[in-house]
Each structure stands twice: as C-alpha cells, then as structure tokens.
Amino acid sequence: MPMTDLLSTLGDNPYFGAGFGLFGLGLGAAVLRKGASAGLVLFRRNFMMTLEVPCRDKSYQWVLLWVTQKAARRTQHLSVETTFEQMDTGRVNTMYHFLPSIGVHLIEYHGKYIQVTRTREQQSLDLHAGVPWENVVLTTFGTDKSLFTNILEEARQMALKTLEGRTIVYTALGSEWRPFGHPQKPRPLKSVVLDDGISERILKDVQKFIAKPYWYIERGIPYRRGYLLHGPPGCGKTSFIKALAGELQYGVCLLNLSERGLTDDRLNYLMSAAPQNTIILLEDVDAAFGGRHESKQVATAYDGLSRVTLSGLLNALDGAASSEARILFMTTNYIERLDAALIRPGRVDSKEYFGHCSQSQIERMYNRFFLENTDSEIYAKEFAETVFKTGKPASAAQIQGYFMLFEDSSPNELIKNHNLIWES
What we know:
The protein is α/β, with parallel strands linked by helices and 424 residues long.
C-alpha cells in the first residue's frame, strides 16, 4: 500500500485521530511549561536580585533586627527573641522582640517591594551555636545591587545604635568570638585611680596609635601596638583596661591562654579574626606556660591535650601571619617569670607598672568615695598619711574593700580602724 494511502487510512481512523490529538495537546503543554520555566529563569536572572544571608555571617543578626523593624509590625506570623539590657544601676531588664517567623514575608523599602524568606533546616545545625541552621533570603525586582548594600549598612547602623555607649566583652567559642554576658555601661576612666600619670600616659599613647594608621603604613611598620601591665594582684590592671575600652568606645576580647584545647593555630586565627574596634586582652600570661597553680596530678590528668606553646604565642604576636590594626594588652603579676622574647620591643611596645597604692593615690581614692563629707580633703590627707606610715603595702582592691566596709562610718572611725585594711 502506498504511504499516502496508509496515512489517509490512519487519518480516517477515529481512535488514531483522538490519540494523536491528545499527544499533540500533551506535547504543546510540555513545550509551554518548559518555555514558561525557562522564561521565568531568564526573567529572574535579568530582572530580579536575590541576597542570601546565612546565620554564620556577621550581618545575620543585623538583618534580622532590620527586618523586625520593617516587617514585624505588619505580619501576624511572629517568633520571639528575648534580650537583656543592663541599666545604669546594674539591674538587668528583660525585653521581648518579635521577629517575622519562618516563612515568606513582604516588606516595602524606598518604593520597592522585597520578599523576605526566612528558612530553618532542622537536619543541619550550627555547631558553634548549637541551634538549627537558618538563613534569610531577600528578593526584589531590579538590577541595582546598591539596594542591598544600603540595606546592610542601614542594618549595621541600627544594630550599632542599640549598643551605643556600651562595652561588649567577647570570649572565644570554638574559632569564633561571641559576646559574653550583657553589654555593660562603660566605667569612667577617672574612676580607676592609679598612681600619678599612668592613666594619662597610656590613654595618650593609645589615642596616638589609633589616629595615625598611615604613619605606620608609609614607614613599613606593622600597624599594631602591644602593652604589658605588670604588678601585684588587685592593683587595677584589668579594671583599667575595661575602663580604657569604654573611654575609646571599644570592646574587649578576653582570651585565656590556659584554656584546655587551645592550640597554636586556633590562637593565631582568633588573634586575626578579632572584631573591629576591640582590645585583645591576655590575662596572667605567666600562668599559661608551666601552670604555676597546677599540681602534678592535674598536669598528668591533662597530659596529651593540645596547649598553646610559647613559640605559638610569639608567632601570633608578630609572626608572618599575625594580624595588624590590633591593640593588645597583656597582664601579669610576675614579670620576672616571662621569657625575654615575649616582652621585647615589637611584641610589647610599652610596659607599665601597677604597684601598691602611693600616698597621693590613697588620697584621691578617699576623695572619690567620700565626696559628701565635709572637709573631705583634710581627712583624705590624714587617712593617707596614717596608712602610709604603717609601711605595709596596700593594693587598690584592699583600699576599696575597706572603704565599702566603712562607707557609712565617720572619718575618725575610718582613720582609727585602718589596720583592718590588711585583715579583709
């Protein structure tokens, strides 16, 4: 049978015609579906922008706060975030912030509509925080990426405003720095009473360093500054550093070199990854090598665990991979126990001795505690002379503790009972 006759016969067959029609409809629908999908992909690529902010990124909390301000008031699907604020009196207030919950939300920003998609993966965990992995995706029409830049900068400024006038203390959690406790009201620098000239000298040096980054760059000098504060316990070393951070509006990164499991590599990374505008504080550096308070039994129990070595610390301070734009403070009660290589110039640029109270220091502490007393300056001088004549060294912590014990007593009682300074 000729081919034309065969096709004519099949065409007259109603079953074949119906099947071919259905096939054609299916093929057409598939082509349309593919075309629509390809068109949508093409449209999204050329006429839409998407920004993904994972929970591990530093800007994640900023973006959540920004979304809260823009969307939480308009949506009925919320999740709660509880925060704490420390008042000037030290009392902590609890506050509840409502965030858009997991799902899709629509907000308007400068005439543009932005779809905010917040997702949470129950099968994946952020190992450092121990919470499910989350991310926020912002989607909008247009091709101007400066919109997202403006959003991130606005979110950053909004977050900084909430912490304005507060000192944040960071501690190392794994390989990251995390805020520890509540942001604290800065302690006035003048409230830490030191011997004449010490506070002013350090503050002036730090401010000079902060103000002259290009001076270091032009001369090929690493832009970092190291300080060593040494002296007996209780003489104000750590208190001064925290007050200095408040004066500079900096945070404090507290790093414990004796932490079990801290390795040389992790130390180097933490030193390099410290948040901007912070002071890195290494307390009691003499205790990190040799463990002066460890018994033989304790040392044996932890034998084999990784610990920071002196060589690792030296490399972190000024090795090839050490960070710049860094302010580092180290404290010790026993400077003679420190290796000379650790405190040489370049690693420690300035050393300051925080000793027992001088007579003028005791006078200034008295005046600061008992401002309301009449003839305060006269009693301050008499008290300072009485304490100094005993010949016994007194730390700032001992003097302060004594004043707090007798805060409601008369000046004569303070002077009469001065021997209790060394019994507290």
